[in-house]
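Q: What would this chain look like folded?
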Amino acid sequence: MPPIPNNPGMRRVLVAAVIALAVVPQALGGIAEVRDAHGHLVSSGGQGAFGSLNDAGWTLRYDYASSSARGVLLRGVSLVGGLVYVDRIFVPVHGLRGARVNGLVVNGHTVRAGPNTLVPLRRASYLVVLQEAVVPGEGSGVVGLRLVAGDATLGLDPGTQLLVGLARAAQATTVHTQERLSWLSLGISGHAPPLENAAFPELLAVPSNGTLGSKAVAIAERYLGVPYRWGGADPLTGFDCSGLTMYVYGQLGVGLTHYTGAQFYEGTRVPPDQLQPGDLVFFHPSARGPQHEGMYIGNGQFIQAPHTGDVVKISSLSEPSYQFGYVGAVRPWTS
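A: My prediction, written as structure tokens:
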């Protein structure tokens, strides 16, 4: 391998894309992918063994991967320098039936992994397990692990995503020409036919256990990664901040107005020390009321659809822009 140039910009590009083991990356994606904050493919791993480096160490590596008509299989998966390790991942070519993530260890602790399990990492970063996605015109597929770097504490650029165990890698008939993740309408199940048939996919079942607020959080977490779109109120086209909360609570029979300034008055006010999962938190005061909102999920964090160019993600109330722009919180009415 030739030496890496001293030019810092070139060095960053090359180091991010190094394949430390004997695998040639697929140009349009593979069994596992590293994507930047804009959804562009940084590196991609296929069958066999794979490794991708960054300045701080390992970004993604695995000992073995294979693809068949049944799905994709990976063994010995390690993310961000070993912070996340998995013995075995199997993702079926269609749906979640038979999907398995065995031996998940996060920061030295064993985690029981099931569909849509959300694992907080450092600060605003998080891991989602077995998240089903719809690829418009191509059908549905599952991502075995999806890690999102919310800031630089993992040694990754903020917004970087690691996608491990992509079911679409087992479908040899589809050619992927897009480099962006705009197709990841996460949290939707069912098989989406070609767009000209105009059939809408079926929503995942509404959670049956827990409080109204905890159910709302469980639903909202399914949409992590859906792109922001001004005026958006569904996961296939995108969400804005009030569209996300309206869409989530609508599935629970709670009607909210598609406007942040109105939602601030559509519930019971909640003091900061009494916040519970599902409460709506509001920011950025103006003469027309708060101009931004999100959904509190606990531990000082909330889910939001931030702005154009971003995606639905988890943020912290302690971040300065939210800490100093905080207006208040509301627990939506149930009637």
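The longest strand covers residues 57-67.
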